[in-house]
Amino acid sequence: MLASGILGQTGESLFRMVKEGGAGAVVTKSIGFEPREGHGSPCLMELDNGILNAMGLPNPGIDNFGEEMAIALKCGAPVIGSIFADTAEKFTILAKKMEGFGASAVELNLSCPHAAKYGLDVGSDPGKVTEIVRAVRSAVRIPVWAKLSPMVPDIAGIALAAEDAGCDAIVAINTLKAMKVEPKVGKPVLRNKVGGLSGPAIKPVGVRAVYEIAGLVKIPIIGVGGINTGEDALEYIMAGATAVQIGSGVHYRGTGVFSEVCSEISAFLDLRGWTLEDVRGMARGNP
User: Fold this and answer.
1) For 176-210, what is each residue's pLDDT tens digit?
2) Catalytic-role residue among 75, 112, 167, 262
3) Is the pTM of this model over 0.85?
4) What are the structural domains, with CATH classification, of the chain?
5) Each residue of 209-226: b (16+ CB within 10 Å) or e?
């Protein structure tokens, strides 16, 4: 799947990820209750081992997103609506609207590390996660996913709280809180000073998180973070993931990364006479 935050703010870009890139599903940019400009520039930079961004959840607001969803849905693949809010009530309203737009599932952004009052600020508290998931689950018929942050003492415990509240799947992980200082001027590079790190540098963290979560929950886990190749995806699957999302990989390999990763997975498995089910959870000793 296309991960949230990458080419997901317009219907045309979501459509293109499926039709040109071969994505099996797409996740929208995180959409909030009202229009939000986000942080000022500079808000993104490429590092040696990843990408650092502090976009600040810019989005047009839920009431202006229906037209984009209508365009995206023409792709013929599932479109998952990512949403963020600061209260269970607002999450519920957003989820209902995404369902009304035709979303196949709703992904709760409980993990953005660089937007005050949102994301990680609500997703680090098991009680708040339980309240939000339970409220949304009772309000919509479509599946509810919770996207979690690794920047908590016990991500598996948060995942279990989400499962107990009725969550249908866990998405792990979001970006890691990070900073870059420019030595020549002695100041942070990003306007917001702190941003979220994605890309290859965070893959070991993501794989670890999926491994730990898989030991506690029974619902599907969607692995995300630093996936650029078929073997990257297989690491997550072997750790216990049911599916994966690709974000920064689009930057590194282009929109065709989805088809390429699938081909690489198939070649890896065919060479060994394995199936995807043979390797899912393999690192956990699962049959």
Assistant:
1) 999 999 999 999 999 999 999 999 999 999 999 99
2) 112
3) yes
4) 11-284 (3.20.20.70)
5) bbbbbbeebebbbbbbbb
